[in-house]
Amino acid sequence: MATVVAVVALPTTRRDQTPLTTADIASVHLKRNGQLVAQGTPQATATQVTINDVNVLPGSYKYTATIVDQQGRESDPSQEVAAVVPTAAPSAPVIVSISIQ
Predict the structure, then answer these.
(1) How, if at all, do strands 25-32 and 35-40 pair?
(2) Which helix (H) or strand (E) element contains residue 87?
């Protein structure tokens, strides 16, 4: 299993182009294949939020993010971003040399 880390840039305007501040944002939702898997809350002066999706099984996934304001209104989803959690372990290392001191 793995942790997928998403860094989400926060918008500064609403759909109607009026200003949006971090105080207006209740949470940022991270969705994997359309399903909510994690959420974060921005700090007062933040321009982005880091959200972790933990215990992700190997496979290919599509992630999106949405913003939910203090009134419970959810934004349109961000663009999709693909993530692949590898199914195989890393290759074995190679010992280059050993010495006796």
Answers:
(1) antiparallel
(2) none
pTM: 0.82
Residue 83 Rama label (left phi>0; alpha psi -120 to 50; beta): beta
On the 0-12 / 13-18 / 19+ scale of CB atoms within 10 A, 46 is middle
* Domains of the chain: residue spans and CATH: 2-85 (2.60.40.10)
Contact by Cβ (8 Å): 78, 64: yes
pLDDT tens digits, 47-97: 999 999 999 999 999 999 999 999 999 999 999 999 999 888 888 999 999
Place of tokens 């989400």: 8
Per the document, the length of the chain is 101
Q: What are phi and psi of 58, to 5 degrees?
A: -55, 140
DSSP bridge pairs for 51: 6
What is the Cα–Cα distance from 33 to 95, expressed in whole angstroms?
41
- At residue 56, what is the residue type? V
